[in-house]
Automatic annotation (TrEMBL):
Alphabetic keyword roster: Cell inner membrane, Cell membrane, Membrane, Sugar transport, Transmembrane, Transmembrane helix, Transport
Record GO cellular component, one term: plasma membrane
Alphabetized Pfam families for the sequence: BPD_transp_2 (PF02653)
The protein's name: Xylose transport system permease protein XylH
The organism of origin for this protein: Klenkia brasiliensis
Membrane topology of the entry: Multi-pass membrane protein
Amino acid sequence: MTQTVGPTSEPEAESATAQKDNATAGALGTGTSDVRTLLTRNLRTSGIYIAFVVVVALFAILTGGTSLSPGNITNIVLQYSYILILAIGMVIVIIAGHIDLSVGSVVAVTGATSAVIVIRHDQPWWVGVLAALAVGLAIGAWHGFWVAYVGIPAFIVTLAGMLLFRGLTLQILDNISLSPFTPEYGKIASGFSNGLLGGNGFDAFTLLIFGVAVVVYAVSQFRTRQARVRYNQPVPSFPLFVAQIVVVAAVVMAFAYQLATARGLPYVLVILAVLILVYGVVTKRTVFGRQVYAIGGNLAAATLSGVKVKVVNFWIFVNMGFLAAVAGVVFSSRSNGAQPGAGNSFELDAIAAAFIGGAAVTGGVGTVVGAMVGGLLVGVMSNGMQLMGVDQSIQSMVKGLVLLLAVAFDVYNKRRAGSGR
């Protein structure tokens, strides 16, 4: 039997060909318009990276290059690592439409717990770490219960927790500081892997680790791009894609070289990198991560689609308690003791990092990497102003203005997107 080709077959074939040509053009097109499209398609994301580069360059000029010296870069990593750890948990809380004001107090109480066990009771360092993590998980479960199952807003629950656990810290420490920790405990935040592979004036192991990370990143980005092309989704031109990879690799390896020529790879940076990798996967590639975004984006729709909102909210706060405990261990290790006032204003720095990094006030938007860039931006600004001898009051004013501008930028993006529909 002869099959008759209908009159719609030719237009359909032309349409399919056109779609394929458009996808190919999108993948291979070049020019300034391609760069402009890449930047404006995700203005919130690209904006924070541009701002970070500008801030780094500005303070490099103002400090005569001191801010980019190997010793200072190492100092930034050590000094702001616990804020970045808190920001990982905070951005997940904010994506779900909540807030956590208690993390500074949780840092204090977990550090105090570890100090009492290691210093006062002379137990091994790892016992203190495990005890601190257990306390953090318990506090997270406490907050999660009141928020998820009782229905009290997270703002109120964590505000109460901020006061409650600050007072508990004073009780645990008898209102005095405890120090010093054992050398093993101190290495958590102040130790370095140096000389494992040798090197002529630098630590080759640090360069190797960062080199492997760059290769993994490049392969991951290439596979993602191939998948987007396969499904006819827009992608930057291949030359621009390669340029992106080269720029990222150059920045990362320059950072690695600075560390390698200083004291090597800080242990705390390894901890932070593992957390970023794990939580990046959790938020982007797991059911739990998609449910967090769904709850923050549209709670009613998430409920109707079968998301167990109470369970997800509970575990969000358990996770925040865990990460606050990790930050508490890192901070107490770096300060070589526990103080009643530890962690003051840490919650504000973590919240600022999340919002500056692109999280939306209304929830449903944000990334772990964005929060890290936001935290580093605040850290570079603070460090640069300290090197310049800027008064602490001025530093607070500048950080406040940056936070306000970041949120205003988010509002502008939403209005711009709304008017474009």
